[in-house]
DNA sequence: TAAGCTATTGGACTAAAGTACAGTTTTTCG
DNA sequence: CGAAAAACTGTACTTTAGTCCAATAGCTTA
């Protein structure tokens, strides 16, 4: 397996050298224009203040996997990198053993992403994908809403107007409003939009 | 590295044997009660109609990573498995080379999840987690909104009233309304709630 | 330079949402 | 059985949202 490191200057950090001594450093501007080789993994260093959206696309268009190296990457950056198509994101100064693990995983078709982060993300997405299930409303608003209130809340969370809800539940629009007033009180929200965000897990 | 395969019967499929000849098969009920060994990876076969929530917890509580083997696992199943804490999910009948790759990746701390699926999931979650980031609105509504419209849309998606938006952007409430009218037209939504759902990925 | 687009705002509405009083009926539970 | 809770609805608002006309100013581009 061949690697190359893409950076804004020709520095070869000691941990990189220890992990992959045969790798070479390629200037980023050159790499973005096709320089360097056809490698298995292209490690791209992202420096403070730099944007993935600016740096990564040209590299992702090339053959080989791309791994982002960043100083203490936060969740948002990891997310963005993976979303953009990178195969992983790890610390610029990670120990050689870790870099080797990343290389092994990525080189074998896996993705390098923190287990906790992925589970959080998947958990959250699963919740959102299944928000049409009444149970999810129960989860968010445990025990405080009556059955009817939950029905109304769910329909609001899905975007329905009072009139639509009234038609759907065969009640007066006036009743919908009454339920909503109660729901806002119980959930600590002020309007349907805030309620929707809360139910859909987008706001506390 | 040591593996064991957890199944409801003592079958040792040929692809499993080719990929990891030294592995043994352990009955699932026994494995859920502590039988088998302390292995690096525990492969758990999930049969049709079986539920991860029933099968997996006892195995996940044990030392070692767990990979789910299922017949042509769909996205929902993979999601559920990863969300529950499995390190991967792949086809029961996958080629030995694939199984070996899975083993390498998982054995080295990676996760085995389809790249396309992960990016979809991350993309969706990233949008939601970063819905305060203008770039995410661009992703959802490519090219159709002006910069100002995007700012307004984003604030609406976060639950703000017209008045709040006007204050935040130092413009008249009247202007907020004008922008919103344009935004609804461009996005094919009828009101702020629908817009919010669309931006947050909860509606098409 | 003219046209097109964006940002801003006004006037004047209509429509929908949300609130505060009130009441009746039905259901549940001690 | 009686009290409380839930479901339903009315009256009468106020507030917010959204629409349809219009206009001006600034910027960009063919």
Write up this protein.
The structure is a homodimer of 204-residue chains. In chain A, 41% of the residues are buried. The first copy, chain A, has a five-stranded parallel β-sheet with strand order 2-1-3-4-5, with helices on both faces. The first copy, chain A, has twelve helices and five strands. The first copy, chain A, folds into two domains: 3-118, 3-Layer(aba) Sandwich (Rossmann fold), CATH 3.40.50.2300; 126-199, Winged helix-like DNA-binding domain superfamily/Winged helix DNA-binding domain (Arc Repressor Mutant, subunit A). Chain A is elongated. The two termini of chain A are 47 Å apart. In chain A, α9 (147-157) crosses α12. The first copy, chain A, is an alpha/beta fold and 204 residues long. At the A-B interface, α5, α6, α7 and α12 of A face α5, α6, α7 and α12 of B. The structure holds a DNA duplex (30 and 30 nucleotides).
